[in-house]
Amino acid sequence: MTTHRYDISLDVRHAADPAVDGYTSRTFIAFSAVPGADTFLDFIHGGVHSVFLNGEELDLGFAVDGDRIQLRNLAADNEVIVTGTALYSRSGEGMHRFFDPADGKCYLYTQYEPADARRVFANFEQPELKAEFTFHVAAPSDWHVASNGAESGRAPLAGDPDASTWDFATTKRMSTYITSILAGPYFRAEDNWSTVLDDGARLEVPLALYCRASLAESFDAPELFALTKAGLDFFNRLFDFPYPWGKYEQAFVPEYNLGAMENPGLVTFTEKYVFTSRATDAQYEARANTLMHEMAHMWFGDLVTMRWWDDLWLKESFADFMGTLGVDRATSWESAWVSFANKRKAWAYLQDQLPTTHPIVADIPDLEAAKQNFDGITYAKGASVLKQLVAYVGFEAFINGSRQYFREHAFGNTSLADLLGALETASGRDLGSWSRQWLQTSGISTLSAEITDGPGGTGSIGEIMESVLLRQDSVDPATGRQEHRPHRLKLGLYDYDDGDSGALRRTDSLELDVDGPLTAVPGLAGRPRPALLLVNDEDLSYAKVRLDGRSEATAREALDRIDDPMARALCWTALWDSARDAETPAELYVAAVERFAPAESGIGVLLNILGNAATAVERYVPAAQRDTVRSGLLNTAAARLRDSVPGSDQQLAWVRTLAGVSRHDGGRLGLLRGLLSGTEDVAGLAVDAELRWSLWQALAANGAATPAELEAELARDTTASGREGHALASAARPDAAVKAEAWQAAVESTALSNEILGATIAGFMTAPSGMLDAYIEPYFDCLERVWRERSIEIAGRIVRGLFPAGQDLPEGTAPEEHPVLLRTDAWLTGHADAPRALRRIVLEQRDHLLRALRAQAVPR
Ligand SMILES: [Zn+2]
User: Fold this and answer.
1) Ligand 1 centre and the CA of 297: distance in Å?
2) What is the 3-state secondary structure (H, E, C) of 414-471?
3) What is the tens place of the pLDDT at every residue in 375-423?
4) Nearest to 137 by CA among 124, 123, 153
């Protein structure tokens, strides 16, 4: 079957009336089929009005089967017209409708991936079934309306003095999941980018940016346009294929479920990237990374698209890699690859150790599984492996292969074999075994150096090493088998600059291929032992690293003296992994953070380790020590807040830590109150809306803020983020009645939007030890019902967010015998037939819990 053309008309004129829950959606589709064959359309609707197939009206009782419209006895060339009512969404799936609490204005945008276009118009929901799309939208005349194609006409609507119809240019061939509509009284800024192509022609690309009108004051459009132009310059040259989608517009939209979406010509982003309160440089860098990621998709994903969701990684890994490369090469940030090592890879490592991990090339039997595959494997492990592939075939061959791939498959669909074929041609290397070992297995290799001392050696710095072996340990969590992979990596030798008081600098670096369980490192035997031997220096490969005993001691004594930011980040990761893997007591990690974080100059790394320290305190430190360790971290945060450079990102990081840790410790409530009232003045610290809410949340969690005070704060901050801040603070109050109400709102009622639901759950879960025990049984009881009755986005937030994760290991109990773990196992055993996607979330939460209990059980 081949789809040719869609012509879609949507009537959202009455969206601003909250009493109207749907809108008319009319779809025309021209497609070819085998004569006599049957097929069906997908349409999740609030009523189908009519279906015409090849001019004949179908009997709806016969044709409409729930969310499917059956089309029988097709001709060779067919035309179908479906008219129905589609529903506005509050879950961020389909056509999301948002009322701005600041001014009451109504905003619409669409979000489809993987399969929610069918919530807006009837279609063949499959990435392979590409077509040309023409959209028409009827909307209030004073709105902005945008789609993938440029606006081609606008006319007042006959009979409705306040409305107009927008027509949009027909698109090139593309998949349903990247079509897009934006409508509302958005703020709009315009600019333009152009370049001269190889043939001398000029490529003109009109640019636009959108955000809600009430955010316009905080919208740094000039900065975003500058990044956009830098990215378009970079990718046009790199891919050697002119930007194919005409215009390039970017919209920052409310209550967005993800970071951004690569709709051709109209990319949507979370409006959390419009910084209304003070943001760190790491947040600006992350936004630039997302911007570059989506832009890379215009070629990889949009121009050339995976055939089916099992090759989702093809586009996501590539875009993740290219997003980081774009920030590194086309902007002034120098920390792009450190951030990648520090955040993206951490995400992959975490996911790849879960029992539910999967090969990068995944088996995706259905759309629920597709939705869940937007995970750390598909994005971050895939991108790490691509980075390894670039090291393996060389950057030039990688880019030449990619260019060939774009030219050959433009506006078409591909699978993994097509990309590997192009890269093999460009590099002259056989990628079959590389692909098998990296893409078709699961799990992460742990690499460690085994150093044999010379005679009489004691493992001290400077003693002669007799031999160094690299050990690879790599059990696939899915199969239990050892999966040794080939790694191209570096070993870095670091020594103190000036006796043992100076900086730790790299004195030498060895590049080598590692394969199999043990690899002898040539060139190290007979040399003096360095203070720090860093395996996977420069972060070329994808692997977990265990430091040898001497190197770990060096890291714990002098991590702040390592001068290379990437090496420091890798040591932080090694220490964190050793706590997460229950090899060392988690309070040692917290101690390292308290000691070395004040000197950490990389703000991304600092935010990350402070977040890890907070997790370590609440989850991995045993109950008996928790209060002491937490109060140490709190005191450090309060002290560092005072002595950080006024107005610095570091100061902001410490005050956020102060507020976050205070949710569980009332020791500094006076300081928090003082910051709110202005009686405590910290030089350079702007106590802005976001910070105020985190201070209120900490007070509320300690029972030290009244509902009236929280209402007063909400009256002061009437924005959407204010409403979320208020929802979290309100549900965080340590009162059984408050918790009961929050549970009811989250689980039993359907009134909350995706974001308010998320805030309510976060507040509910902020509770003193034991207060939520009464919800363990209700949690397991509601799982299947929630999964059945709620959309996958909302159900996922409930099932993941309300799992009873914060558990203490009683003295003398084995982690595996913890009652909540046993209760989870009982549910899993008793619900073997529950939907796979639901079981996946429960299995993952079980694994996080078991990991936390094991960390608590480490002998102290
Ligand atoms: Zn992406």
Assistant:
1) 7
2) ECHHHHHHHHHHHHCCCCHHHHHHHHCCCCCCEEEEEEEECCCCCCCCCCEEEEEEEE
3) 899 999 999 999 889 888 899 999 999 999 999 999 999 998 999 999 9
4) 153
β-sheet bridge partners, residue 520 = 469
Q: What percent of the chain has pLDDT over 70?
A: 100
**What is the CA(205)–ligand 1 centre distance, in A?**
22
145 near 16, Cβ under 8 Å? no
CA of 109 to the centre of ligand 1 (A): 18
Q: What is the pTM of this model?
A: 0.94
Distance from the CA of 439 to the center of ligand 1, in angstroms?
18
Cα(688)–Cα(691) distance, integer angstroms: 5
Residues with CB under 5 A from ligand 1 (ion): 316, 319
Ranking 473-477, 497-501, 622-626 by mean pLDDT, the lowest is 497-501
Q: Are 83 and 74 in contact (CB under 8 A)?
A: no
**Rounded distance from Cα 712 to ligand 1 centre (Å):** 40
Distance 322 CA to ligand 1 centre (A): 10
The mean per-residue pLDDT over the stretch 351-366 comes to: 88
Q: Which residues are catalytic?
A: 294
> 423 with 397: CB under 8 angstroms?
yes
- The per-residue pLDDT for range 780-797, each reduced to its tens digit, is 999 999 999 999 999 999
The answer to whether residues 111 and 102 touch, using CB atoms and an 8 Å cutoff, is no
- Mean pLDDT (the chain) is 96
Dist. CA 316 → ligand 1 center (Å): 5
Residue 40 alpha carbon to ligand 1 centre in Å: 29
d(C-alpha 381, C-alpha 445), whole Å: 12
**pLDDT band at residue 499, thresholds of 50, 70 and 90?**
low
Q: What does the alpha-carbon distance between residue 647 and residue 630 come to, in Å, rounded to a whole number?
A: 26
Q: For residue 498, is pLDDT > 90?
A: no
Taking the centre of ligand 1 as the mean of its atom positions, its distance from the CA of residue 127, in whole angstroms, is 15
The CA–CA distances, whole Å, from 672 to 343, 503, 668, 705 equal 29, 37, 7, 11
Burial of 631 (0-12, 13-18, 19+ CB in 10 A): middle
**In the prediction, which pLDDT does 115 show?**
94
User: Which segments within 12-114 are labelled E, that is strand?
Assistant: 22-32, 39-42, 48-53, 56-57, 64-65, 68-71, 77-87, 94-99, 106-111
Question: Amino acid identity, residue 19?
Answer: A
Q: Looking at residue 157, what DSSP letter applies?
A: P
The neighbouring-strand residues paired with 24 are 11, 85
Query: Side chain identity at 825, as an amino acid letter?
Result: D
pLDDT at 368 over 90: no
546-599 pLDDT, tens digit per residue, is 999 999 999 999 999 999 999 999 999 999 999 999 999 999 999 999 999 999
